[in-house]
Amino acid sequence: MSNILAIAQKELKGYFASPIAYIVIGFSAILYGWFFINLLYYFDRISMQAGAGFEGPQSVNVNDQLISPLFLNVSVILLFTLPLVTMRTYSEEKRSGTIELLLTSPLTDSQIVFGKFLGGLILYGAMLAVTLVHMGFLFAFGNPEWRPVASGYLGLLLMGGCFLSLGLFVSSLTRNQIVAGMVTFALFLLFWVINWIATFMGPTTQSVLNYLSITEHLNDFTRGVVDTKHLVYYVSFIAFSLFLTVRAVDSERWRG
Asked: What is the pLDDT of residues 17-61, one digit of tens each?
């Protein structure tokens, strides 16, 4: 475990020693704030409209009308930010030649992969931590339910883990950061829109593609529902991607 933590610490130092961490956190905070302000304006408008009717403003639910759409919009932010996090993890090591030092160190391939994954996950956690300011604003001046908020953050953490593990695998296949970033973005986009493609398919294919959609599994989390099938999907996705990364690193060791 100490070896994994040492690799994760090394990755975090690398992120914050370069502009990557600041760009990723800053860019995600700006986009999240923009989504938050627009959804808050929309929520305020429909609250005023509901207040003019017989049901009153209490008929508008802040979790359904503001927080849930806000969490779903975060998946858009991940499409653009997480490829920046993962594109250099192995590509830069190969380009600079430090991959040989890493592979000849007394570390197993699994420890290297899990350490890099943990480092990226901690950076992603810092991105999500910035958004707690907006949630604090809602809890201070509104009355949202905390369970959908907690499950929504759990869903975002699992989705981010899927993207990070997939990005690690892509980065382990090339020494060019730009190529790794572009391929990672393309794969992220594929898993993000695959349920759109499902609408043109037959019932069986449609159900399969909907299950493969990484955003389809987030919907229940944002509504406060933690379903086992969604947990199995995300955990399996992460485990399989990390397994492929370990195999790619192992092949690099044998080629070296």
From this structure: 888 889 999 999 999 999 999 888 888 787 776 655 544 444 577
Cα separation, 211 vs 59, whole angstroms: 33
Domains of the chain: which residue ranges? 2-255
Query: What separation, in Å, do the N-terminal and C-terminal C-alpha atoms of the chain show?
Result: 26
> Residue 20 to residues 33, 67, 134, 170: CA-CA distances in angstroms?
20, 28, 23, 18
CA distance linking residue 63 with residue 140, whole number of Å: 14
Output the CA–CA distances (angstroms, integers) from residue 254 to 107, 181, 248, 249, in the order listed.
15, 25, 10, 9
96-141 tens-digit pLDDT = 767 667 767 777 888 888 999 999 999 999 999 999 988 888 888 8
